[in-house]
Design brief:
RNA-binding; Double Stranded RNA Binding Domain; alpha+beta; Small ribosomal subunit protein uS5; ribosomal protein; Ribosomal Protein S5, domain 2; Ribsml_uS5_D2-typ_fold_subgr; 4-stranded mixed beta sheet; 2 domains; 8 strands; rRNA-binding; elongated
Length: 175
């Protein structure tokens, strides 16, 4: 019985195809008694382009090992992003991560992803196709990626807002 359940989980993992993109690879060193110990840090964005995205960091003695650890970490920290019919976000939002701030606004269909660096990678892997984003403050790729994920995590759909307020969705649109 238990083996059947394991097989089902394994096939489910294969069905959900996650893409991974390396945002940054950096050689880092630690000073130890014998000298300097070199290792690599990889920042990886993982997403399925259908509303799920995560950021992972991995460190290892070689680049491939660091990337693998980063992918595993990214899959552990997945968030769900509510997307509109035009593959944009439902409302403007801000996010912070360390000293980095990210400002995001929904855009009209056909605009594309107007964002730079790590934020662009995160948005593309989340499945957002039309958005305006601006990085403010730090230009550190890890903090900018975390700020982008933080901004996407704060998004709420109209249905969620209506449910929280205890009113029907139609009442939200009254001008």
């Amino acid at each position: 019985m238990a083996t059947g359940r394991r097989k089902a989980n394994r096939t489910k993992e294969k069905e959900t195809t996650f893409q991974e993109r390396v945002i940054q690879i950096r050689r880092v060193s630690k000073v130890v008694k014998g000298g300097k110990k070199l290792s690599f840090r990889a920042i990886v964005a993982v997403g399925n382009e259908r509303g799920q995205v995560g950021i992972g960091v991995g460190k290892a003695g070689d680049v491939i090992g660091a990337v693998k650890k980063g992918v595993a970490d990214g899959k552990k920290h997945l968030i769900d992003v509510p997307l509109t019919k035009s593959n944009s976000i439902p409302h403007p939002t801000n996010g912070t991560g360390g000293g980095a701030k990210v400002l995001m606004r929904p855009a009209a269909p056909g605009t594309g992803v107007i964002a730079g660096g790590a934020v662009r990678t995160v948005l593309e892997l989340a499945g957002v196709r039309n958005i305006l984003a601006k990085q403010l403050g730090s230009n550190n790729p890890l903090n900018n990626a975390r700020a982008a994920v933080n901004a996407l995590a704060t998004l709420r759909t109209f249905a969620e807002v209506a449910e929280e307020r205890g009113i029907p969705v139609e009442k939200l649109y009254i001008v």
